[in-house]
Design a protein that fits this description.
The protein is mostly beta strands and about 675 residues long. The protein has seven helices and 39 strands. It has a 22-stranded antiparallel barrel. A five-stranded mixed beta sheet has the order 1-8-9-5-6. The chain has a single domain, classed as TonB-dependent receptor, beta-barrel domain (Maltoporin, Chain A).
């Protein structure tokens, strides 16, 4: 590691010295993550999909963000209705292993990590009512974001020049679902703030699926004349109840789609969460040639859940998560050469105090597990971008990561009962983009993803080997390559076509065991291959007609995988549909109204490693209409959204390799969402 660090620091010194020889002309396009991309978005070799505020407006009153993500090629999202499990997101097949929340995909908010350093994230504290835009990075992104970055999503909540605004919205839909939001922003000289309050309740279509949550989000900004920007960001969430109806067998689904699993009711399966995060950010241009950007944050999370079995079926943990990071950006323009270099650092420290108790049909029994778990990450990275003659862009980068994992068993303090591992990793990136014309761009990129097991995965040992932790798990290593074409004419049309290919060793696979159905354990597969094609198109006709269409063709297989004596070579990886597509038509009429037509189609996929159970594909039709009203000299907006108009019977979530064939979580019945918003803008 010391040898790599020495070489790394020499490269930094040489690169910055060369960059400083150029004239002092500085220009840049900057936000929380664009510092890592090239100087001109059109010529970037990164697969980056941006969802703008206008695109999010259709879904901002919904309970989850899922529907907006269907229009990102290569991305699969599950679990609209089980709030105890949270949204499950995978990008190019990475993330399918998650039994709850997001794993293997880096989640950021305004460029600041929301994911823990071990690769887990929950987005139950994020809501579209305060998200201004989203950046989705497809493919291996460890050179940019470190461990467990098989893709990344950056939620942008801050918007410059927001002005003085007030918006109050109430939404109602079927199954006694309500959502109330209040958003306000104000600017005074060099000070500004944005506040957002959210309250959500959900009774649910299925039995035992109630949810309640309350969120507060705040951003305070101070912008000084010398270019300094100070920001204080605060996020608070209290979710006192989120029941888990569990997964069913196909016979139970056919009997009654509203059923909850009997043991989930008996053991009162569900969770409650209390979380808060405080972030301080600082940006400044110095010496007319450098931009510095730093952040520091602290997150605390108190979590309780009940699982549908007795032994160790109640879990409590207190999380303390601290992080700091930043970048130094140098950008020059010299004749026909644009040059940018950024040096970045990051320190993340996660500590979980985790306890498990017996679940005595909802009551807490004896303690069975008591562990102090920590995951600390330290990283340095360097990224270069050189744009020659405004056509050829060469981008390269390298990131060094040290991941230190420690699990200490407090119930058994004898020697050999703890888990201590250090993983050092080097993640390179090389990308080339060529602007063939004003409208056509070609790109080629090579990258690498590195993913350690999470603390949860290590802390659950399914083997009777007298060990407290699952020490058999190994990190996943995934080199990848992609080639793509982009055709764009400002806001009139946008066409993207990308081919990707990646391989992985030690793919992490979830499974369940007979004695504890409902608790997920993990094992490594041998070697996997993921290849696919992604297509995205958007046509905008005078802001009256907007047409969007996406298509994904995926081929994700186990090349070598032996489960005991069972040979699973060339089996399909579960939860990876071969075909996915989405189509949307928006029409803005002269009557201050907006009509939306949506068609979402997901193809067949397997639920298990053995490929014995096929989940049939489905097609969903949604319709939406919104109209701006002026009542008593006040501005209102009325929105109606019809979900699943054709009453398609599908599954909103599938539990991979579930024991006893309990794969299925039925979707809700068709529903109508009605929202009324009061809008004030000074």
């Amino acid at each position: 590691m010391k040898k790599y660090l020495s070489v790394f620091l020499k490269v930094i010194f040489i690169s910055i010295s060369q960059a400083d020889r150029a004239p002092d002309t500085l220009y840049y396009v900057f936000d929380s993550v664009d510092v890592y991309s090239t100087s001109q978005k059109h010529s970037s070799p990164l697969s980056l999909h941006v969802i703008k505020s206008d695109d999010l407006a259709v879904d901002k009153n919904k309970q989850t963000i899922n529907k907006s993500l269907y229009f990102v090629p290569g991305l699969t999202v599950m679990n609209d209705n089980n709030f105890a499990q949270d949204a499950r997101i995978s990008i190019r097949g990475v993330g399918t292993r998650s039994s709850f929340g997001v794993r293997g995909i880096k989640i950021l908010v305004d460029g600041v990590p929301e994911s823990t350093p071990d690769g887990q994230a929950q987005i139950d504290n994020l809501d579209l009512s305060f998200i201004k835009s989203m950046q989705i990075f497809q493919g291996a992104n460890s050179p940019l974001f470190g461990n467990a970055s098989g893709g990344a999503i950056n939620f942008i909540t801050f918007k410059n020049n927001e002005g003085d605004n007030l918006e109050i919205t109430s939404s109602y839909s079927g199954n006694k679902t309500t959502k109330h939001t209040l958003s306000t922003s104000k600017s005074y000289k060099n000070l500004s703030y944005q506040l957002n309050f959210i309250s959500k309740n959900h009774t649910g279509y299925r039995n035992h699926s109630e949810m309640e949550s309350h969120n507060l989000n705040a951003i305070f900004s101070l912008k000084r004349k010398n270019g300094e920007l100070f920001q204080l960001l605060f996020n608070y969430m209290n979710s006192p109840i989120a029941n888990d109806p569990g997964s069913l067998t196909i016979d139970q689904v056919n009997e009654d789609r509203t059923l909850a699993r009997e043991k989930n009711i008996l053991y009162e399966a569900g969770e409650d969460i209390l979380q808060q995060k405080t972030t301080l950010k600082y940006k400044k241009i110095i010496n007319q040639g450098f931009l510095i950007d730093n952040y520091i944050f602290y997150l605390s999370r108190s979590f309780n859940n009940k699982l549908p079995f007795e032994v160790g079926g109640q879990v409590h943990f207190d999380r303390n998560y601290f992080g700091l990071g930043g970048s130094l950006l140098k950008q020059k323009k010299y004749n026909n050469l644009d040059y940018k270099i950024s040096f970045n650092y990051q320190v993340l420290a996660q500590q979980d105090l985790r306890k498990k108790y017996n679940n005595l049909e909802g009551s807490r029994g004896d303690i069975t597990y008591d562990s102090e778990e920590s995951f600390n990450s330290y990283s340095l990275s360097l990224h270069n971008s050189m744009l020659f003659i405004q056509r050829l862009n060469l981008t390269s980068g390298i990131r060094l990561d040290r991941n230190v994992i420690n699990l200490q068993n407090n119930l058994n303090t004898s020697s050999g009962t703890d888990y201590n591992v250090v993983y050092d990793n080097i993640s390179p990136f090389l990308g080339i983009a060529y602007d063939y014309s004003k409208y056509l761009n070609l790109h080629l990129a090579f990258s690498r993803n590195f993913e350690t097991p999470t603390l949860y995965e290590i802390g659950n040992n399914p083997y009777d080997n007298n060990e407290n932790f699952n020490s058999n798990l190994k990190p996943v290593i995934s080199p990848s390559a992609e080639i793509g074409w982009k055709i764009k004419n400002k806001d009139f049309y946008n066409l993207n076509l990308t081919f990707y290919h990646s391989t992985s060793t030690n793919e992490l696979i979830p499974f369940e065991i007979e004695s504890e159905p409902g608790r997920t354990y993990y094992r490594n597969a041998g070697f996997t291959r993921k290849s696919g094609l992604e297509f995205y198109s958007m046509i905008n006709i005078q802001d009256v007609y907007i047409l969007k269409a996406t298509y994904t063709l995926a081929d994700h297989i186990y090349e070598t995988y032996h489960l005991g004596e069972i040979n699973l070579d060339n089996n399909k990886i579960p939860l990876s549909p071969k075909n996915q597509s989405a189509f949307e038509l928006q029409f803005s009429s002269i009557f201050n109204s907006n009509l939306v037509f949506r068609l979402i189609s997901v193809g067949d996929f397997f639920a298990d490693d053995l490929n014995n159970t096929i989940i049939k594909g489905y097609t969903i039709l949604d319709l939406g209409v919104s109209k701006k009203l002026n009542l008593f000299q006040n501005n209102f907006e009325l929105q109606l959204y019809f979900e699943n108009v054709l009453n398609e019977l599908y599954f909103s979530n599938i539990r991979m390799n579930a024991y006893g064939g309990r794969f299925y979580e039925p979707s809700d019945k068709p529903s109508i969402l009605i929202s009324l918003s009061y809008l004030y803008k000074k």
